[in-house]
Recover the amino acids of this structure.
C-alpha cells in the first residue's frame, strides 16, 4: 500500500467514537446520505437538467462538475493521503468507494485528501441557486431560499456521512467543501467572462491533462474521459442535434431513465473487448482505455442519445403536436 499517513490527534478519536455509537441503523442512514454525492445520482441530476429542464442550466452545472471530478484527484495524487481505515485499527470501512475491488487497493479506492463526495456535492447543489443569480433569472425569493438552504444542508450531510463510513478524515471533508465552493465560483466566473466556449473548454482540458504525468488512480482517468466526452458533445449537439427541453413528466422520466440505461449498457459493452485483468491493472494502457471508454460513453449520452427525442416525438404526436409537448 503506497501513500502517506497524517492526521490530527482528535480525528481518529472522533471517528472511532462516532462509529462505536452509530450502530447498524446509523450505518444505513450514512450509506443513504453518501449516495447524494455519488456517480449515479449526479448523472441523474445532470441528465434531468440537460435533457429535460434547461439545457443551458445543465451545461452550466456540468462544466463545474467535470472540473471538480478531475481536479479533485489531481490534488489527491499530489498529497497521497491514505484512507483512515488503512492505518487506524479502530476505524472500519463501512462502504468502499469501489465495492468490486479490494478495500486496500489504492488504485481502485483512491486517496483520501480531499473528499471527492464533499467536493462534488458542494458543486452540484451549490450551483442550483448560483445559476439563477449568475444568469439573472427571475425566481421567487422563497424558491431561492429553498435552493440556498439545500446547497448548504446536502453537502454537509454528505461530508459527515463520509466520516461516519470511515473512508475520510474530517479534514478531508472540510477541504473538500472548500475546494467544491472554490471550483464552483471560479468556473462560474470563467463561463461568464470567456465568451468563446470552445476556447474555455480547451483551457480546462489542457490544465486537467497535467495529471497524466503523475496520477495513478482510476478516478482521475475516469473523470478525464468524462470531461473530454462532455466538451466534445456540446458543439456536436449544438450543430447537429438541437434537441428541445420538455415539461412533460412522462417524457422527463423516459429521457432520464433511458439516458442512465444507455450509460450502463455502453459501459458494459465497451469493457467486453478487454480482459478484466488488463482493465484492473494500474498501467498506462489500462488508463488510456478507461479514459477513452468514458469519453465515448458521455459523448453518446449527451450528443447522440438526444436524437431519439425528436424521433419519438414525431411518432407519438402526429400533426405537429410534438412542439407543444416539448414546451
Amino acid at each position: 500500500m503506497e501513500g502517506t499517513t497524517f492526521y490530527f490527534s482528535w480525528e481518529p478519536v472522533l471517528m472511532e467514537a462516532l462509529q462505536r455509537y452509530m450502530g447498524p441503523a446509523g450505518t444505513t442512514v450514512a450509506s443513504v446520505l453518501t449516495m447524494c454525492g455519488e456517480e449515479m445520482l449526479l448523472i441523474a441530476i445532470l441528465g434531468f437538467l440537460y435533457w429535460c429542464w434547461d439545457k443551458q442550466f445543465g451545461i452550466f452545472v456540468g462544466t463545474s462538475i467535470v472540473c471538480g471530478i478531475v481536479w479533485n484527484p489531481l490534488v489527491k495524487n499530489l498529497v497521497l493521503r491514505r484512507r483512515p481505515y488503512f492505518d487506524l485499527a479502530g476505524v472500519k470501512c463501512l462502504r468502499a468507494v469501489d465495492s468490486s475491488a479490494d478495500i486496500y487497493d489504492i488504485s481502485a479506492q483512491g486517496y483520501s485528501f480531499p473528499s471527492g463526495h464533499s467536493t462534488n456535492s458542494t458543486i452540484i447543489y451549490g450551483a442550483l441557486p448560483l445559476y439563477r443569480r449568475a444568469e439573472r433569472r427571475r425566481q421567487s425569493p422563497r424558491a431561492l431560499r429553498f435552493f440556498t438552504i439545500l446547497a448548504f444542508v446536502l453537502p454537509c450531510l454528505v461530508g459527515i456521512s463520509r466520516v461516519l463510513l470511515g473512508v475520510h478524515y474530517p479534514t478531508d471533508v472540510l477541504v473538500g467543501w472548500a475546494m467544491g465552493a472554490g471550483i464552483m465560483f471560479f468556473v462560474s466566473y470563467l463561463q461568464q467572462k470567456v465568451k468563446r466556449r470552445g476556447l474555455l473548454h480547451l483551457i480546462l482540458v489542457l490544465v486537467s491533462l497535467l495529471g497524466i504525468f503523475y496520477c495513478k488512480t482510476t478516478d482521475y482517468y475516469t473523470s478525464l474521459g468524462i470531461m473530454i466526452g462532455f466538451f466534445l458533445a456540446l458543439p456536436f449537439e449544438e450543430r447537429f442535434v438541437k434537441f428541445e427541453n420538455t415539461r412533460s413528466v412522462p417524457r422527463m422520466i423516459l429521457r432520464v431513465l433511458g439516458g442512465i440505461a444507455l450509460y450502463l449498457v455502453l459501459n458494459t459493452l465497451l469493457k467486453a473487448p478487454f480482459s478484466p485483468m488488463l482493465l484492473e491493472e494500474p498501467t498506462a494502457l489500462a488508463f488510456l482505455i478507461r479514459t477513452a471508454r468514458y469519453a465515448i460513453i458521455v459523448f453518446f449520452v449527451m450528443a447522440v442519445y438526444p436524437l431519439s427525442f425528436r424521433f419519438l416525438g414525431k411518432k407519438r404526436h402526429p400533426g405537429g403536436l410534438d412542439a407543444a409537448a416539448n414546451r
